[in-house]
Write a structure and sequence with these properties.
4-stranded mixed beta sheet, 196 residues, two-stranded parallel ribbon, alpha/beta, 26% helix, 5 helices
Length: 196
């Protein structure tokens, strides 16, 4: 999916600043998914119904509702099972209430080596902060790969928890979010209101 500055929305932030350079913090570790049936459940949220899925032990995805109003895509062989997602739901509820800033969950996203590198880099952007695509590309040692960072960012399967919403345009505008720019704006404004 390609995004352009024409899709940009302004942020309701007190200071319109350029994106902050991502701090050099420890990224979250991803593990390999356990073979077998994918488990899933849904939950209500301020962004609409979220689809949670994983291997029964680690989270592989958090999907916001499709922008066109279609139902979530659930794999043909997926098993409906709420039990593995109790802690995921608890942490997401606390996040939306402004009470949780860092998620502590086992994560097992499926992606290419490059996508996994980008997604790990996303986890180094702290709550309430933002980074630009070019800044992340530099941090990853590929300063000319901002478009490749954007493409990987747009394919992040674990939205909210792996914070792809914290990546913004070089001029501070909102550009690109698979869940829709209004949802991205909502998440950034939630974090901005609750950071101290």
């Amino acid at each position: 999916m390609t995004y352009t500055d024409q899709d940009a929305l302004p942020l309701d932030l007190p200071e319109a600043t350029e994106p902050a350079a991502p701090p050099r913090t420890t990224s979250v570790r991803f593990r390999e998914p356990i073979p077998g049936s994918t488990r899933y459940t849904t939950m209500d949220s301020p962004l609409g119904e979220l689809l949670l899925f994983g291997d029964g032990e680690a989270l592989a995805g958090v999907s916001t509702p499709p922008k066109d109003g279609a139902p979530h895509h659930v794999g043909e062989r997926w098993l409906s099972d709420e039990a593995p997602f109790t802690e995921v739901k608890r942490q997401l509820i606390a996040y939306f209430a402004g009470e949780l800033r860092e998620f502590d969950l086992p994560l097992a996203p499926a992606g290419t080596p490059w996508q996994l590198r980008v997604w790990r880099a996303l986890t180094t952007i702290p709550y309430g902060e933002t980074a630009g695509y070019g800044e992340l590309a530099e941090e990853l040692g590929r300063p000319t790969a901002s478009r490749a960072v954007g493409a990987a960012n747009g394919r992040n399967p674990i939205s909210i928890i792996v914070p792809c919403h914290r990546v913004i345009g070089a001029n501070g505008s909102l550009t690109g979010y698979a869940g829709g720019l209004e949802r991205k704006k909502k998440l950034l404004n939630l974090e901005n209101r609750n950071r101290v």
